[in-house]
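Chain A, query sequence.
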Amino acid sequence: MTYLEQLKPGDEHNRTLESNVHPSDWVNPLPRGRYHLVVIGAGTAGLVTAAGAAGLGATVAIIERGLMGGDCLNVGCVPSKALIAAARQAAAVRGAVNFGIRSNPPSVDFAEVMQRMRRLRASISPHDSAKRFSDLGIDVFFGQGAFKDGNKVTVAGQTLQFKKAVIATGARPAEPPIDGLMEAGYLNNETLFSLTELPRRLVVIGGGPIGCEMAQSFARFGTEVTLIEQSNHILPGAEKDAAHVVQHAMHKDGVRILLAAKVVRVEKNGNDRMVVVHKKDEELRINGDHILVSIGRVPNLEGLGLESVGVVSDPQRGIEVDDRLRTSNHNIYAAGDVCSKYKFTHAADFMARIVIQNSLFMGRAKASRLIIPWCTYTSPEVAHVGIHPRNAADQGVQLTTFTQPFSGVDRAILDGEDQGFVRVHCKKGSDQIVGATIVAEHAGDMIGEIVMAMKHRIGLGKIASIIHPYPTQAEAVRKLGDQFNRTRLTPMVKSLFNTWLSWTR
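Chain A, predicted structure.
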């Protein structure tokens, strides 16, 4: 789809967004000789690379064929979290009775919810704007960038010479090969945020992060939502019992969830879309006004001319890079969703920092040294970092696991948010943290403490000595430190303590 289709409706907020991230009157500058870096793609990875390199004195050009800010600003993190915030408010009003507060059921003005999203998105967009990056001394070009040879890129009829280049073109929603889907029409994250009317019925195909976040949010707005997932539980990338906590919460919000189910075809009858699903030996037919497809992402590789410069890529996995984020052509680097299995804004940000070091300063920074957490922003949220127990044996790691349920954390009980837990996996025989999962209303805010401990090799036992304010939900992390320290009180140690105390009585 073209970037203009992402700017519907054409209200003042989307016009402001466009004026910042793809101005209609923008005139591409004249190239300035050989650039230290030419960056193709102005999403998170490209913008961080360009701004960081220019700030260090490099001459930089950046090329974007669509909207600067990429998916995160325009059709990803920013608009989705605005909707999630509104949906949480609706849920809070409905749940107020549990706190002794009675009010009328909320009336959701979906058009106002979406207008708020567009207004806030537009207010954030100057940070990613063409003007801002031009003011940073970066030459901003709009158009399709393509490699001409090993040191040249063409864009909009001009040729840019480079010493090093960076591919940061991101990814887009995958299109499932489902009979009748294209003919019936469907939504994905690139079109969902252009809605102005609340669907009465929504069928969500895919129980990953985006599918679950939006299914729960629309159910909270009042839509009749059915979510279809092929696996035996939603959020297949999460620990199973973490996914079950979220699954239970989504059920309470009214989401109908079909697991171990496969969509075989879609039929359209007038404005109705019927999704035909096989579940065990049963065929189910689910009607909806809209279908939201969320089954993963594929890299944006088309039109780049990669073959002309010997850059190896795969249509599904993206551009092949080494640990220093060099492609098979060592003058060309890649960062972000186009080459990474971690398709997160924060991962793209830190990959860009590696590219700056290695491309400009002969650095030896390695992507494998990054400790990358992720979070799914359902209610409750699921945050994770490091190893999964199911993969530990394959990696030759033996684990000792410590779990603190929020049902044993005073603040969580008082907040009415005691369904969840903090879990830390340590290397067996030590307190070295190698992984963690948090299921909580603000799990994404809590995981940072554990990421810092992993990065700086602070053991779980030492976390027990860090005073956390009482009462807070983050105190659950400190309680895990106490759990570890109690394992050090072996029968022999306890016997020595008893002997000492009897002598000193």
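The domain at 181-295 is CATH 3.50.50.60 (FAD/NAD(P)-binding domain). The first helix runs from residue 12 to 21.
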